[in-house]
Amino acid sequence: MGGLVSRYKGRMGILAAVSFLGALLEASFLVLVTGIAMALVAGDSSVGPYYGWLVPIRHALVGAATVLVVRLGLSLTSVAISARLTADVTGDQRHLLSDAYLQTSWAVQQSEPSGRLQELLTSFVGRVTNTVSTMTSAVTALLSLIAFLGAGLAIDAASTGAVLVTLGLVGGVLTPLRRRIRSLATDSARANVDFASAVSELGALGLEMQTFGVQHRFASRIHRLSHDTTATQQRVQFLTGALAPIYMSMAYAAALAGVALLALMGFGDVAELGAVMLLMLRSLSYGQQLAAASGSIAAAAPFLEAIRSTADRYRAAPAGGGGVVPDAVTPLVGTNVSYAYSLSRPALRGASFRLAKGEIVGVIGPSGAGKSTLAQLLLGLRKPTAGSLSAAGTELGVVNRFWWTRRVSFVPQDAFLFTGTVAENIRFFRDDIGEDDIRRAAAQANVLADIEALPKGLYTHLGERGNQLSGGQRQRITIARALVGDPQFLVLDEPTSALDSRSEALVRQTLASLRGKVTVVVIAHRMSTLDICDRVMVIESGHVTAFDTPEALRESSEFYRNSLTVSGIG
Fold first, then answer.
1. Which of 71, 160, 542, 558 has the CA that lies 20 to 30 A from 570?
2. Residue 193 in this model has a pLDDT that exceeds 80
3. In whole angstroms, what is the distance from residue 83 CA to residue 137 CA?
4. What is residue 506's predicted lDDT score, i.e. its pLDDT?
């Protein structure tokens, strides 16, 4: 919380000064109004004395009205500063998190629970924003309290001192309650992230849910997760809300005791007593605001800490890369390359290979053999935990990342499109790609005719996630996306696994047209997809067990022969 205050200390300082001046004016207004009322009741023509001066009632009325107008102006200024501050905090916290996430390594991004970033950017940042608003209110309340106590000391030091001691005692009594609120809020923050992750996972299984008719079971699970989350939230909210009324009841009891004490002492100055009581009661209301704010800040502190710690964790693992620019992308050479997600999860072990310029290489193997891990290593998304991987003789880990990403490309198994036009999906945020480039890539991917048949061609809006297109069309658009930047190296992960025979044939035709121009790695289970490959790599249990031409593998690799037989190619 201290870092947040330090970041915006300039504007908070201005807000504090405006609030303090406004509070002094409010205290002056209350003293003047009390004096005017008492003078009218007593039939006097003047108010006071104030510091030895008597003020005519007419002048006192004009002065009170002037103070009220200036006070209103300062209040509106304070509201404007506070509104700008909370808006800036919202933007800054979202930028902090999103920038840190986007600059971190793929390994960290992939390991994040589904829905975590969304929850942090929405509800967590929202809580921090509300906290800043609460903090500005607390600053206003604190300085107003100081101003009122100062005015009270000027009128009657003994009574005001008693109020000050009372406020301190009441605040000390409530300290354990604030600690309990913070502890419960930490549990609530963790529960919110778990809930968002679980809902995101369940939401991705909508097709299966409908197919198996288990909507009621999904609903029951969400209800249970929601109950666990809201139960903690309810306790936090109750304790936070209880702070203010508990504080106010104790403070009023102290004020009542003070009045009784004054009565016993025979306090005789009615005007002075009225002014002191007004200031005392108004001070107690500001004290109530401080109590409520302290509870809200304690409840929000874990959410701010979660944002900070998450951003620090992202920044601690930046995406790899250096400043070296190799002569070319290929040959890509792996020497005893190994990768392990953890000590107990080795994914690739001692793989050695050489990928030449313009050749098409297939990769096959059982599920979990390490094929996708190999693809991520080749793309530079992960670093080998052992061995070396080089591009044209340069270690991939020190290659300039910007240079590398302009020369390699990727087609995932699942064709994800975002809400936008066809052109926007193919361009994929690369502003230097023009319409001619998009048409050329679409033609290469054998999807241009499908695009031109759409109502607005390239500028047809595809709806959410491209749901207006078939699976084959979406896959070919992602291939066009991969080709539009003229890559020198292209990796495709199961590009035809969910396609019909016509769409598969079109994809194979596209890949065949790249031979000799682009180095292509195709990860596939469908053996028919591999007919176009110059060589095929077989990976079993993390080991490269064979790497040769399809003809040679028919003789040397049992896995390859069995895969052909199962595919009916035989």
1. 542
2. no
3. 11
4. 86
